[in-house]
Amino acid sequence: MSKPGRYGEFGGQYVPETLMNALHELEAAYEKYSRDKDFLDELGFYYREYANRPSLLYYAEKMTKDLGGCKVYLKREDLNHTGAHKINNVLGQILLAKRMGKTRVTAETGAGQHGVATATAAALFGMQCEVFMGAEDMERQSLNVYRMELLGAKVTGVDSGTGTLKDAINEAMRDWTSNVESTYYLIGSVMGPHPYPQMVRDFQKVIGIEAKKQYVEKEGRLPDCLVACVGGGSNAMGLFYNFIPDKSVRLVGAEAAGKGACTPMNAATMANGTKGIFHGMKSLFIQNDEGQIAPVYSISAGLDYPGIGPEHAELKQTGRAEYVSVTDEEAVRAFEYLSKTEGIIPALESAHAVAAAMKIAPGMRKDQGMIINLSGRGDKDVYSVARYRGVKLDEQN
Amino acid sequence: MNRIDRKFAELKGKNEKALIPFVTAGDPDMETTEKLVFSMFGAGADLVELGVPFSDPVAEGPVIQKASKRSIDGGTTLVKIFALVERLRQKTDGPLLLMMYINSIYRFGTERFFKLCAEKGVDGVIVPDLPYEERAEIQRDAEQNGVYPIRLVAPTSHERTAMIARDAEGFLYCVSSTGVTGMRGSFSTDFDEFFGTVKKYAKIPCAVGFGISTPEQARQMGAYCDGVIIGSAIVKIVEMEGRACVRHVEEFVGSVKKAIKK
């Protein structure tokens, strides 16, 4: 038996002493409310009435025919309010923060989806909100920056390091250390110190619970394969979790290989990471021999994180899940493919899952089926893809 | 006997407070760090903390963040830091501590790290992102090699203080206030309450750090405990003066020592 908050050897609570009581309070509050009927009813209410849950499980018939293999289903998290799976976790944590008497929430964001979801929920529940975002990401995702500001949040740019998600988390953790009494740090992925990886997974597992029920209703059996993208890993954990005991279901995580997993420009933690302790957890990280965390790169701002949630590290170690790398080019092609084939523009993050699925599906039998987690919509990425393709758009007028 | 114990015993005999300055190793280069350590001991430092640079120092404010970056860019490695310690040990018997993040130890190999600490003459390590609950990560290797893992208590520790202080070794690092390292104009911590709790449980000396930047602040804070740690204020001088910093740091350390002796 491993300690609570451990996934095999991974996980733990590696944070400064200043935060330890806050983490213990959070653990206790989460323990209490995750079993509290009023809390769960209220969360269910907001999932249904505000976030548009359950999300659809859509049979992608054209894609299925085109790929010529197994049936392909899309779990449409892109249809949630704010356009991604992030809202599932944010609603859960903000209701918890409210019950804990916190008045200010902070969040880190990469692509901006978690920041937008947090700013949205903060507006809804009347809480002060500050979002930390890498300066580089603010440029790539200027639309989401403005969206957060519209929602009343303060967006603080982070210049240090590579100016991306990792640096935004560093700054959010520093802010939390400074304002620990008033502030609830709303982590957006299945990462960080315990209880975050568990709590975020629990708030996201609704994806897999719905998907299983919907798939069984449509097909009368379990799917054979699940595919989801992984940065920190929350949408993948959300889809996978309810299927982990179903050994016949293959679990595939698609991580960002950037310009190639063998080039210096990638964010493929599962391919290139080694064991380390960072951002409050023991897990896998892209780092050098000195333990310096390496700069990472992906066209997708939501996936360029040099680590991975600890439960994924364990799923990889035990072999229960497998992880594949998808390059920028493959992701952009999948982005265009899904847009033209199914009329659905996926987030660049989700396009990594689509790209992985496009390789796997043709090798599967027609009587088999897979679910791709379409974790977010791609409106935010249209400019990035245009830029990648060398298409000039007039962004200002 | 660990050099840290010996030093605090000696200071107690003289009824003096410990002055514990911090510099980031390899900032601006190893040669300068070597000179800095000697000159700080000469100017009245009792123990010296060497910062091991980390790419993502989440407990640090901007001054030490920038110093870490300068040091990493200059090619600092743990092996080079151990070589520095070895050179220092040929000329000084002053207690030396490494302040560093757990990933640097873990990645280097915990057993190998502590063996080298003992071999080269590091007396203690301060790991701000290794709380009491995760102490097993280094406890055994540290103990076997006679190196003290210095424990930290914070104003938010409250009832945790008893547990943390119970079998702590060397000295207890009292974090002055919430937040990261770096200079502060004032403190919102209720020091009577904080040090009241700490003193109730601590059987070893207590030193206070985080945000202390002037001789006057050092004097005021020193009154509550047995030692004062100063980091960012010194690192800021190194940032401004570069290789020419030694004389300025020496002067500053001397002025702080004078203030806490009053």
Describe this structure in words.
- The complex is a heterodimer of chains A (397) and B (262).
- Chain A is α/β, with parallel strands linked by helices and 397 residues long.
- Chain A is 43% helix and 19% strand.
- Chain A has 16 helices and 14 strands.
- In chain A, helix 2 packs antiparallel against helix 4.
- By secondary structure, chain B is α/β, with parallel strands linked by helices.
- Chain B is built from 12 helices and 9 strands.
- In chain B, helix 9 (191-201) links the parallel strand 7 and strand 8 (206-209).
- The mean pLDDT of chain B is 96.
- The A-B interface holds A 12-22, 160-161, 166-167, 170, 173-174, 177-181, 274-280, 282, 285, 287, 289-293 and B 54-56, 58-59, 61, 65, 72, 77-78, 101-104, 106-108, 128-134, 137, 152-158, 160, 164, 175, 178-180.
End-to-end separation of chain B: 29 Å
Give the SSE string of chain B.
Answer: HEHEHHEHHEHEEHEHEHEHH
Distance between the termini of chain A: 60 Å
Can you tell me the overall shape of chain B?
globular
Percent helix of chain B, as a range, is 40-55%
What fraction of the residues of chain A are assigned to beta strands by DSSP?
15-25%
Content-based structural category of chain A:
alpha/beta
Taking the sheet with the most strands of chain B, its summary is:
9 strands, parallel
* Alpha-beta content class of chain B: alpha/beta
Mean pLDDT level of chain A: 96
Q: Taking strands numbered 1, 2, ... along the chain, how are they ordered across the largest sheet of chain B?
A: 5-4-3-2-1-9-8-7-6
How many whole angstroms does the radius of gyration of chain B measure? 17 Å
The overall pLDDT of chain B, averaged over residues, is: 96
* Arrangement of strands in the largest sheet of chain A: 3-4-14-9-10-13
What overall form of chain A do the CA principal axes indicate? globular
In terms of DSSP E residues, the strand content of chain B is 5-15%
Percent helix range of chain A: 40-55%
